[in-house]
Write a structure and sequence with these properties.
Elements: E1 2-5, H1 41-59, E2 63-70, E3 73-84, E4 87-88, E5 95-96, H2 101-114, H3 142-146, E6 160-161, H4 169-173, H5 198-212, H6 216-225, E7 259-260, H7 264-267, E8 270-271, H8 273-283, H9 288-293, E9 309-312, E10 318-326, E11 329-336, E12 341-347, H10 353-363
Antiparallel strand pairs: 1-3, 2-3, 2-12, 3-4, 5-8, 6-7, 9-10, 10-11, 11-12
Helix pairs in contact: 1-10, 2-5, 2-6
Length: 365
């Protein structure tokens, strides 16, 4: 285990599924988020340090990293197990984080909205270039795309094998990627009702790229990642797997094939526990952008904002969360913004949900 106590913390202070069902990870958002902020952080750390190695072994997951935010700041992080071979996982080990790409993507688009480049409630048809959404209507807006209420199909993406050509954003939307359905993205139901859609986030990605003339990865780096100090993170998994990213593993602990994602906003982010702690810290700040992300969108029954699941902790405090699953990886982040508390958990195994559960149980036994 390799761990880090962040420098501003005073020592001693109390300061989901198998790869083949990646596409349905978030069909129904949760309303209960098991993350009551602890009174004794040191006791929580001791429990996490004891629980994670056991969970890794029982679930046949090689490695994990965990970070905790308290009082709106990252305060502790650690790596457990190995990334691949004998290389130990550290809190700055890079992992693909699956659908945790979506909260970062939503934050990126909301920065463009804040700057006046995009309009949350205008039809997106003006920013699709030559591409047209099959079955689309003027009811398709960024607000609805980011809250999964635009009536768009394609729940998720299984990725493109690393040795195959990667399509463009438009190529993916036209069905040229390993979408869960194998079909082109289209509007298949009336807008206004929650239906989880990675395809909707790929449309939002195209809107941002068309409006600015820049790749989505570049926009995210400039508008979200760099300002938060998330220097290790990026949508590099979109085009090529970084050499220092931990390899993924299947449920038997075997190294999984590499997959890449043209669908950056939906599934293409690589990050570290340390960097996601910085993102979580930003979610505890009261800004116009975080208020939009953390306010229930119409049509979600109060369970989803813009890029984030919404719910309540067992003791009734407002909380936000998002899981992330790509083939070979399982991740999770959650926060109680009003308390400045949050946790990020990254694993390099299809069985990583057991590790996520172990960490959450250690926080609130």
């Amino acid at each position: 285990m390799r761990r880090k106590r962040w420098p501003w913390v005073v020592a001693g202070s109390a300061a989901l599924v198998a790869a083949v069902v990646v596409s349905t990870t978030l069909t129904t958002p949760r309303t209960s988020i098991a993350l009551d902020p602890p009174d004794d952080l040191d006791a929580v750390i001791v429990r996490i340090e004891a629980a994670v190695p056991v969970a890794l072994a029982s679930a046949t997951v090689p490695g994990a990293s965990v970070a905790i935010v308290q009082n709106g700041r990252p305060v502790w992080s650690a790596g457990f197990g190995v990334a691949g071979g004998s290389e130990p996982v550290a809190s700055d080990t890079l992992f693909p984080v699956g659908s945790i790409s979506k909260p970062v993507a939503a934050a990126t688009i909301l920065e463009l909205v804040h700057a006046g480049t995009l309009d949350l409630d205008a039809p997106v048809s003006d920013h699709l270039g030559d591409w047209r959404l099959p079955g689309g209507t003027d009811d398709v807006t960024l607000r609805r795309l980011l809250s999964h209420t635009a009536g768009i199909d394609v729940p998720g993406y299984l990725g493109t094998p690393a040795d195959e050509p990667l399509p463009s954003t438009v190529g993916s939307l036209d069905g040229g990627s390993s979408a869960s359905t194998g079909d082109a993205v289209r509007m298949t139901s009336d807008a206004g009702h929650y239906a989880y859609s990675g395809g909707g986030y790929t449309i939002a990605q195209l809107v941002a790229e068309t409006a600015t003339g820049r790749p989505f990865a570049e926009l995210a780096e400039e508008l979200v990642l760099r300002p938060r100090g998330m220097t290790a993170s990026g949508y590099a998994c979109t085009t090529t797997r970084p050499a220092d990213a931990a390899p993924g593993h299947d449920r038997d602990g075997r190294v999984a094939p590499q997959y890449l994602y043209a669908e950056a906003a939906a599934a293409g982010l690589c990050s570290t526990a340390d960097d996601l702690a910085l993102f979580l810290a930003s979610l505890t700040e009261d800004t116009p952008q975080t208020r939009l992300m953390e306010t229930a969108a119409e049509g979600t029954d109060g369970a989803y904002g813009l890029g984030l699941e919404l719910g309540r902790t067992p003791d009734g405090r407002a909380a936000v969360a998002h899981p992330g699953v790509n083939r070979g990886y399982t991740a999770y982040l959650a926060a109680v913004p009003g308390e400045g508390f949050g946790v990020a958990i990254l694993t390099n195994g299809d069985g990583g949900q057991a590790v996520v559960d172990a960490v959450l149980d250690a926080i609130d036994p």
